[in-house]
Amino acid sequence: MKTIYLKEPFSEPKTCVVTIGMFDGVHRGHCFVIDCLREEAESRQLPSCVVTFDCHPRQVVCPDWHPQLLSTLDEKLMLLSETGIDLCVVLPFTKELAALSARNFMQQVLKEQIGAEVLLTGYDNHFGHREQGQQEGFDDYRRYGQELGMEVKALPAEGVVNSSLIRQLLTEGRIEEANDCLGYPYTVTGTVVSGEHIGSRLGFPTANLQPADACKLIPANGAYAVKVRLDNSFVQKHAMTNIGRRPTFDGHQTTLETHILQYEGKLYGQQMAVSFCHRLRDEQRFDTPEALAEQLRHDAETTEKLFNQDSEE
Predict the structure, then answer these.
(1) Of all helices (H) and strands (E), which one includes residue 92?
(2) Which helix (H) or strand (E) holds 48?
(3) What 3-state DSSP class applies to 196?
(4) What order do you get walking across the sheet with 2-5 strand by strand?
(5) What is the pLDDT along the chain (313 residues), one digit of tens a residue?
(6) What is the pTM of this model?
(7) Is 200 helix (H, G, I), strand (E, B) or coil?
(8) Is the Cβ–Cβ distance between 265 and 227 less than 8 Å?
(9) Of the candidates 144, 154, 136, 226, the residue with the CA atom closest to the CA atom of residue 185
(10) Pseudo-torsion of CA 105, 107, 111, 114, nearest 10°?
(11) Using the 8-state DSSP alphabet, how is residue 247 labeled?
């Protein structure tokens, strides 16, 4: 996949088949859309092109709004690169872009800059600036396309999987269901930073993760069986992660702390990717540190059993 950050016109491809969207998480619903895009492009012997944005459009329109993203831009581009598309165009979403009407966007960006010969879009999808009270939809886009020499085709309905559903599942701690919708384990990446060393005193040293993007959605508080990768290694290690405020120790700040099973070594400053696989339990307050340590031993045993079961399936 070739990636182009559209800051100025480019010369290739001359024509292509395009679909446009945020593609947050690049989940199963998105993959259905991309499969349709690739089939259409192959039937016309044209390159397939996904057009997306460098940030959530609402962040520009409403600066005080903070999204809960399923994927950072880098993660999204990596996931898109695995779908088999030919080209991804990343649009810098600006106030000027937000002010373009649907027709002007189709003409100035999709047609003149990207070279879209065919635009695939959901029948109920909407884009472009609309004046108050103005209603535009698929029939309008198709008419604009006819005027511009661009065929606009409706995508089939892609089912019930969408980014909003996945966000809801994650915020409720329903990690297995969220992963099924995504098509892969939900992952948070970041840097290991120094913590309060409470885990070490309990016999379970933890890596305190500072997420790479403050807008990245963090799953519901609780304990999880996870797999981790360190410093971009492809080797995954079994681990367990706790998200919460450490109520046993009257904590106030939410932390994301990971104990890697059967691992010794310093992790401060390393990059770590935490992939959530199973939910172990809710966040709990224990009467004593010893009771918490006993629960952690049980969590570690449960984590290994779950991953052993996964490998047998």
Answers:
(1) none
(2) strand 48-53
(3) coil
(4) 2-5, 87-91, 48-53, 16-20, 116-122, 151-155
(5) 999 887 765 666 679 999 999 999 999 999 999 999 999 999 999 999 999 999 888 888 788 888 999 999 999 999 999 999 999 999 998 888 888 999 999 999 999 999 999 999 987 788 887 765 577 888 999 999 999 999 999 998 766 789 999 999 999 999 999 999 999 999 999 999 987 666 667 778 899 999 999 999 999 999 999 999 999 788 999 999 999 987 666 667 889 999 999 888 888 999 999 999 999 999 988 888 888 889 999 999 999 999 999 887 7
(6) 0.91
(7) helix
(8) no
(9) 226
(10) -40
(11) G
CA 81, CA 238: separation in Å to the nearest integer? Answer: 27
DSSP for 254-295? -EEEEEETT--S--TT-EEEEEEEEEEE-----SSHHHHHHH
